[in-house]
Structure formats: structure tokens, C-alpha cells
Amino acid sequence: MLDFNTIAGVSIPFVGTTLGAAMVFFMKDKIHPLLQKALLGFSSGVMMAASVWSLLIPAMDLSTERGMGKFSFLPAISGLLIGILLLLLCDRLIPHLHLNQTQPEGPKSSLQKTTMMILAVAIHNLPEGMAVGAVFAGLKNAGTEVTLASAFALSVGIAIQNFPEGAIISMPLKSEGISRRKSFLYGTLSGLVEPFGAIAVILLSDFLIPLLPYLLSFAAGAMIYVIVEEIIPEASEGTHSNIATIGFAVGFCVMMILDVALG
Which regions span the lipid bilayer (predicted)? Predict the structure, then answer.
């Protein structure tokens, strides 16, 4: 059952993307390269901290409660590796174009550049939506230590991460000659996969609860893949990569504070 708290929780990350995409109405044609690096670093820091504190640690704690003892790491490792492998497969099978790149990845396609840029962000956002869905699904299981506060902490943390991501997708689209309204719309649509992914996991939660440790770590693995494969290389491109490192540290600390203080 999707109650008010659940609907609100899974919607928060999408709101973050929408607000970020709206920056296209207030900022100049392009994001300053240093600001872009800082935002990318911040995003990766938030995602990494969320993967550890909100997903991997709860997955291992839950496995311990279920009597796995010293082998409580097995579901976490299994889910993490499956998440990484699935995103690797998506990267190979879905045509997409990353920020500041001229050559698309995946199979050859006649899709427009704009569409492939949106697909690249959508691939990033799907595991985030699944992560939020998995945590809210955990609320339905009395055997977990997942609380409403910790679930909302993850949603807020990902929303903070999505704010710069929304701007990073809408601003380059405008610089390509697309109108402000369409750039905003495309930036917003790139985040729509998150609530759908979250709701799908929640609706299937009655069947997935026995697999919750695997599901939590799967979402962590998918997010870690995005961090290592896509965000960090983009943030480290060219000079002044130390700005991205500082952004990573700030993002990691912000998400860690949110999870520990609210959870």
C-alpha cells in the first residue's frame, strides 16, 4: 500500500531534479567549468555515502539479524556485484551520450543527441530510485532497523544530489540551441525514472522482503558503478580536479550527517 509518507518520500528526489533543471531559467548559457566539477564531485560524494550508510550497512545488519553471523557480508557482496554487472550491461546495450562527450556509448543508433543525453542521466537515476524504493520497502518489514527518518534522509540526500544533476543536464541542452522551456522539460524528464523505479520496488516488496539485503546492496552496487564509471571521470577531466575532490568530501559529509542524525 502506498501511503502518504511513501509517496512523499519517493517524490522528493524527483523534486530535486526538477528544481535543478529550473536553473536554466536563472543562469547564463553555460555552467562555469569549476562549478560543474564541484557539483559533480558533490553528487558522487552524496551517492557514495548513501551507498555505505543507507544501503550496505543496513543490508549487513539485516543479514546478521536473520542469523547469518560471520557470513552476513555475503548478501551485501552478492547484491553489490550484481548491481555493478547490471549497470555495465545497460551501459553496453542502451545508446547514450555523456556530458562533454562527442561520441555516444552503446550500440549504434539514430537517436538524437538530446535523447541520448537524457538516456545517460536516466541510467544514472534508475538505481537511485530503486535505492529509495528498497529503503521504503524495508519500512514494511518489522525485522529491519529501517526507520521513517532514515528513509527520508536517503530521499533528501539524493534530492540534494539531483539538484546539480538537473542543472547539469538542462544547461548544456540550452547551450546546444534548445529553448529554455524544452531544456527544463528534458532535464525534468531525465529524473522521472526515479519515482517509477522506487514505486515498482515498493509494489513488489511483499515478494522482495526475503531478498531485502540483496536488494539494498544491489542498489548500492548500481550507484557505485555510476560514481566510478561516469561521474568521477567527468569531474576529473582537464585541470582543477581538486575542486571535484573537495566537492566529493562535502557531499559525503552532508549525506553522512543526514543519515546518522536523522536515522
Answer: 6-26, 38-60, 72-94, 184-205, 211-228, 240-262
